[in-house]
Amino acid sequence: MGILELIGGIFKPAADLIDNLHTSEEEKLTLQKEMQRISAEFQGKVLEYESKLMEAQSKIITAEASSTNWLASSWRPITMLTFLLLVVLDSFGVLSHPLSKDAWTLLQLGLGGYVVGRSGEKMYSQYAKGKAEEARGGDEAKG
User: Fold this and answer.
1) Within 13 A of 127's CA, how many CA atoms are on the CB side?
2) pLDDT means per 10 residues in the chain (143 residues)?
3) DSSP string for 93-140
């Protein structure tokens, strides 16, 4: 269930209550319209928060990747290569104990986070590059 469905589920009981009120249709429509406005505003705030969170995560990953410290810039790829090695060894039955369901869940979360993180890093670098070019273009126009 996504965050937007969750928010919709929060406001549904109130919307149902409005539908069952014994009042004029005009008052019901006014209440429904206000409820939809509040729900949309709340969803907008949540999306804004999610966007800021992704941007912050992207900055962390970018800082790690561009670090001059070898370990700081390499720990994510090393972790993913380790996961890959475990999957291959487990697939061929080389491991003395097969990977547990918890290990597979961790692997899925790690892979998902790595892919999303790398995508976020690339998107943010493109965004930053565009902003830098935009700033240079604005300086040239002034000069």
Assistant:
1) 10
2) 68 71 77 83 84 82 78 80 86 88 79 65 68 66 50
3) T-SSSPPPHHHHHHHHHHHHHHHHHHHHHHHHHHHHHHHHHHHHHHHH
Contacts of 31 (CB under 8 A, 6+ apart): 18, 21
- 48: region left, alpha or beta (phi > 0 left; psi from -120 to 50 alpha): alpha
Distance CA 50, CA 44 (A): 10
Q: Tell me, what's the pLDDT at 125?
A: 67
SS3 92: coil
**Are residues 18 and 32 in contact, defined by beta-carbon separation less than 8 angstroms?**
yes
* Residue among 49, 27, 3 at smallest CA distance from 19: 27
Rg (C-alpha) for the chain, rounded Å, is 24
Contacts of 46 (CB under 8 A, 6+ apart): 3, 4, 7
Distance CA 35, CA 80 (A): 46
